[in-house]
Every structure is written in structure tokens, then in C-alpha cells.
Automatic annotation (TrEMBL):
Pfam families registered for this protein in UniProt: SurE
Domain of life, source organism: Eukaryota
Name the record gives this protein: Survival protein SurE-like phosphatase/nucleotidase domain-containing protein
PANTHER family: TUBULIN--TYROSINE LIGASE PBY1-RELATED (PTHR47551:SF1)
Domain Survival protein SurE-like phosphatase/nucleotidase: 28-250
Matches recorded under InterPro entries: SurE-like_Pase/nucleotidase, SurE-like_sf, TTL
């Protein structure tokens, strides 16, 4: 079955709305929900370097100072949002933090901004406070893991940042790299960045109309999922599917904490440090039952026969030629 799939060949359009004349560089704001380069954020630096060095795009980076997955479109509305400057270095983007903006030092490749806040907050501050009127396109990601189906997409900080941007009437794309295996071979990083940029450019040049869209009757945002599979290395490449988002649900997300002693959690964006310290004491009902919980690993029992044909989750399953997604599809949906 090959429902809704087609092979695309990405060639520059002669009618491209890409910036031309005196400034040929697309002005991009890059953000994410995984934070600065590291174990939990392995992709952002490579994509940044590909967009800036190989494509020549003008890319500003404003990201959370730490991992902020599963936070959706939340904004920080209490307290003060503090930021610092980040200077990534080759080859992996690991860098140094500075309280003040300064000139690049040897080995540093750019100046980024880290904000102690949520992805949606980062997007809004970047668009309206840091770079007002200077951004053509927001790219949120690449996320470490796929963002398919409504239940998980609506929980995603990656899509949350893109949604925040779209609500500011800026073209927005959420980008996610999905895989089932825990360890992704680094040889797949570069092909994923190359394919991502080609798809993003194609979308930019052929941005669809939507009469209900907030920005001049356009589609508000796109979500792209790319499987991190060996098919990225083949000459044929991956099939590309336009999909609808599967409207699913999830239930049990938390479990009682097994430790008998309370484990304080970091203060959330709407909780001061003093409040967090006070609330870190474990509440106990008169029955003696602990009210201490932790997020549990989400395990979904996905029966391929139950997933609607043509949805994003169907594209993922349909492309799964085994546990390594040997015949993976790339899938997209417009929101």
C-alpha cells in the first residue's frame, strides 16, 4: 500500500519567494525544546552549521537553557526570564556560557542566546524582543524523537515553539528526528540535516494557502518527522508522505514514586525557588498514602490495524520494515 506517498525532487523554483537581490539569505530563527548541544540535544548544532555554512542562511538561535520536553505551548508568565550568551565550538557545538555579549574567541562559531524558560517563551521573546522584524521563518528542532499523533504533538515543546511563532504570524516549521533505537549512528546526522533543509526550502517556496490561516490566508505551521534510518544513506532516499495528524489519546502518564523519601523537583517556570522548597515536602493523606509521583515512560500499544491510513503514525508504521525502520518514510503534516 502506498497511500498518499510520493517521491519529490527538490529543485529551486524560478518563482521562489526566497529572499533575493541585495540579501539572498533566508532569515531564520532556530529554537528547540532539548536545550543546548549535548547528550539530550545532539542535532541542533549540526543543522545550524548546515543552514549557515552550506546554505548561507542567516540563522539566529534562541533556545531553552535546559531540556524542556513535554511542556507544549506553555509560557512563563511569573517571575523574570533570565538569559545568557552561549558560544558553540566545533565539532559538536559544546561551548561556553557568558553573562555578557562579547566577540567570538578562537574556535567559537557563533553567539546564541539561552533563556531560562520554555520553548514557546523563547520563540516569543526572540521574535518580539531580540530580533523584531528580522525573522522570515522559525524552525523548531530538530527534536530528539518523533512528534507524531495529536496526543504527543500537542504535548511537544518543539511543536509548542512553532505554534507560539505561528500565533505571532511568522511562518513556522517544527522538525523532529525519530528513531526506535536508543543510539543513533552519527553517520545519519548529516544526511538528515541535508534532507531536512531540502524539505524546508521546498515548503518555503510552495507555502500552501489556508483561508482560515492567521498570516495572509496561509497555512500556520508545518510539522516534519524524519526517521533516523539507513535509508537516509541510500541514493534513492526516503519516500515523502503528506499526512493528516492521527487524533489519538493517552491515559496513564505518572506513577507513584518508589522512594520512601521525598525527592524535591526543580522549580517550574511558574514556581519560585522558595515555593518549590516548601512544596518539596511530601504530602501524605491521613491514610498514609504518599502523594509523590514521577513521570513514567510512555508506552503505547500501537496496533497497526487500528491506526487510520494516511495519518502521521500510519506513515511511521508503514515505513517500519523492522525495528530499524529499514524502509522508512519521511512524513509531514500541516497544522
Amino acid at each position: 500500500m502506498d497511500f498518499g506517498c510520493q517521491k519529490w525532487y527538490f529543485e529551486p523554483s524560478p518563482r521562489s519567494p526566497m529572499p533575493t537581490e541585495s540579501d539572498s539569505r533566508l532569515r531564520v530563527l532556530l529554537t528547540n525544546d532539548d536545550g543546548p548541544p549535548g547528550k539530550h540535544s545532539p542535532y541542533i548544532y549540526g543543522l545550524f552549521r548546515h543552514l549557515t555554512v552550506e546554505l548561507g542562511w542567516d540563522v539566529k538561535v534562541v533556545i531553552p537553557s535546559s531540556q524542556k520536553s513535554w511542556i507544549g505551548n506553555a509560557y512563563q508568565i511569573t517571575g523574570t526570564v533570565c538569559g545568557r550568551y552561549y558560544y558553540p565550538r566545533e565539532p559538536d557545538g559544546l561551548g561556553v556560557i557568558s553573562e555578557r555579549s562579547r566577540s567570538l574567541e578562537k574556535g567559537e562559531t557563533a553567539e546564541w542566546v539561552l533563556l531560562d524558560s520554555t520553548p514557546a517563551t523563547c520563540a516569543n521573546i526572540a521574535l518580539h524582543n531580540l530580533y523584531p522584524g528580522q525573522i522570515d521563518l522559525l524552525i523548531s528542532g530538530p527534536n530528539l524523537g518523533c512528534n507524531d499523533s495529536a496526543a504527543f504533538a500537542l504535548s511537544s515543546g518543539t511543536i509548542g515553539a512553532a505554534l507560539s511563532s505561528s500565533l505571532s504570524k511568522v511562518r513556522s516549521i517544527a522538525l523532529s528526528y525519530g528513531a526506535e533505537q536508543q543510539s543513533i549512528p552519527e553517520e545519519l546526522y548529516k544526511p538528515a540535516h541535508v534532507l531536512s533543509s531540502r524539505v524546508i526550502r521546498h515548503i518555503w517556496e510552495h507555502w500552501a494557502q489556508d483561508k482560515d490561516g492567521l498570516r495572509d490566508g496561509e497555512v500556520d505551521l508545518y510539522s516534519i518527522n524524519i526517521p533516523m534510518v539507513r535509508g537516509l544513506l541510500s541514493e534513492e532516499g526516503l519516500k515523502i508522505c503528506w499526512t493528516n495528524m492521527w487524533r489519538n489519546s493517552y491515559g496513564h502518564l505518572f506513577k507513584a514514586h518508589a522512594n520512601s523519601e521525598p525527592i524535591p523537583s526543580p522549580a517550574g517556570p511558574d514556581l519560585s525557588s522558595s515555593e518549590a522548597a516548601g512544596r518539596s515536602q511530601r504530602a501524605v493523606l491521613t491514610s498514609g498514602r504518599s502523594l509523590t509521583f514521577e513521570f513514567a515512560h510512555v508506552e503505547t500499544e500501537l496496533n497497526p490495524a487500528d491506526v487510520p491510513v494516511g495519518t502521521d503514525s500510519w506513515a511511521l508504521i508503514h515505513g517500519n520494515g523492522g525495528n530499524d525502520f529499514e524502509d522508512g518514510d519521511l512524513w509531514m503534516q500541516k497544522l
